[in-house]
Amino acid sequence: MAVREVVTLPHPVLRQRARPVTDFGPELQQLVDDMWETMHAAHGMGLAANQVGIPARVIVVEVPMPESDDEEPPPHAGERFTLVNPRISWHTRETVTGVEGCLSLPGLAGEVERYKEIRIEAQDRRGKRFTKRFTGWIARIFQHEIDHVSGVVYTDHIDDPEKVWSVTPGEEEREEAKAAILA
Ligand code: ZN
Questions:
Q1: DSSP string covering 108-152, please?
Q2: Which site in 36, 88, 104, 151 is 20 to 30 Å from 157, CA atoms measured?
């Protein structure tokens, strides 16, 4: 396994619609392993293959367990999801607003509206198909990552410039940055 470089805007691969995966051989397995290592090294909660420079429809998502034992772990905390060829096959009409950050847009955070609940159809890393419903934070992360493999970044959803702000690590903005999901 290896930590790969996370590309940032304006790298063109982040604007590329990724190709579907058809070969579940060693090259994909290596990519998935590297994506996990890269995401953990970057302290992210989600990563799309585009973000390591590979335009393939592969995402990994893991909501970390809370740092303190007193906090209630969010749904699916600690569970590792590797999704190949994911698509949102259903969603609620209802949306929720939350703060997001992105490893490919360092130093920024913004308020994004996302579907409250979604159903995803995808394949696992061996090609097995599955369908799963997600709600809350993790549903937001999946929407953020599925956007990435379509060449979309979260700021594309924000039309009000007041709803994107810079988060320089340090000072009072640290807490705000921590509250943002980094994906
Ligand atoms: Zn991102």
A1: EEEEEEEESEEEEEEE-TTS-EEEEEEETHHHHHHHHHHHHTTT-
A2: 36
Q: Domains in the chain, start-ordered, CATH in brackets?
A: 12-182 (3.90.45.10)
Q: How far apart are CA 80 and CA 37, in angstroms?
A: 12
Q: Between β-strands 181-182 and 164-166, what pairing exists: parallel, antiparallel or unpaired?
A: unpaired
Reduced to 3 states (helix: H, G, I; strand: E, B; else coil), residue 11 is coil
pLDDT tens-digit profile of 67-101?
888 888 888 999 999 999 999 999 999 999 999 99
Whole-number Å distance, alpha carbon 20 to ligand 1 midpoint, is 19
For the ranges 51-55, 70-74, 99-103, 131-135, which has the lowest average pLDDT? 70-74
Q: Which residues are within 5 Å of ligand 1 (an ion), measured at CB?
A: 102, 183
Give residue 15 CA to ligand 1 midpoint distance, Å.
12
Question: Distance from the CA of 94 to the center of ligand 1, in angstroms?
Answer: 22
Residues 48 and 67: their CA atoms lie apart, in Å, by 25
Distance CA 43, CA 113 (A): 23
Q: Which residues are catalytic?
A: 145
